[in-house]
Write a structure and sequence with these properties.
With 197 residues, this protein is α/β, with parallel strands linked by helices. It has eight helices and seven strands, in the order E-H-E-H-H-E-E-H-E-E-H-H-E-H-H. It has helices at 10-18, 32-41, 46-64, 90-100, 136-146, 149-152, 174-178, 182-191; strands at 3-5, 24-25, 69-79, 82-84, 104-115, 118-131, 167-171. Strands 1, 2, 3, 4, 5, 6 and 7 form a seven-stranded mixed sheet that branches.
Length: 197
């Protein structure tokens, strides 16, 4: 069965490739900010928003590819009751990391499967990450070395590489932290879509 991942996320693509899935990657062209603002106005939780964005991405690609199984995924970062978004530049990333320093934040990752514009399955999972208290020097050194990770991920870090050094404690599934609840997705694909090894 042909699969499309409705995402340009390198981390998500790497996860699916690593477990031997064959797929095409086609990012959905959505106004995620407007969708999120509308969801917040309706008092939706971060989990509900993550699921909604994952579904909207998959549905957008499914309209153009009705005979293909489309996987949509999204991730929300919540800290102190605030939802945070990807930084546009290094200065924004530094401000975000200063805000997260010494605190526990939550990553909520959602995934959905759609075919023929019908939502077949969805799942969301969360992880709690406690960041060390970062000195100005430590933060400067991290930002100098992190490169594109500062603007590529919602937390301004990639846990699978240099970002791991920012944390004192991590509770939750490693794949969820990277942006995709991989194990439940694989179970769905094997059980319901008969996509095995």
């Amino acid at each position: 069965m042909k699969i499309i991942l409705a995402s340009k996320s390198v981390a998500r693509q790497n996860m699916l490739q690593a477990v031997g899935l064959q797929f095409d990657s086609i990012p959905a062209d959505l106004d995620e900010d407007a969708l999120t603002e509308n969801a917040i106005a309706q008092h939706q939780s971060p989990r509900e928003i993550a699921l909604m964005l994952a579904q909207e991405k998959a549905l957008a690609i499914s309209k153009q590819n009705p005979d293909v199984l489309v996987i949509g995924s999204d991730q929300i970062l919540e800290c102190d009751g605030e939802m945070l978004y990807k930084a546009e530049n290094e200065d924004e990333a530094k401000d975000k990391l200063k805000f997260l320093s010494g605190k526990t934040h939550y990553l909520i990752s959602a995934v959905t499967a759609v075919k023929g514009s019908e939502i077949l399955w969805m799942h969301a999972d969360s992880a709690a990450l406690t960041m060390k208290t970062l000195s100005d020097d430590y933060l400067e050194n991290y930002c100098a070395r992190a490169g594109e990770a500062l603007i590529r991920s919602v937390g301004a870090y990639e846990i699978e590489s240099l970002g791991a050094r920012l944390f004192a404690k991590v509770e939750g599934d490693f794949f969820t932290i990277q942006g995709l609840p991989l194990l439940p997705l694989l179970q769905y694909l094997e059980d319901e879509q008969e996509i095995g090894l």
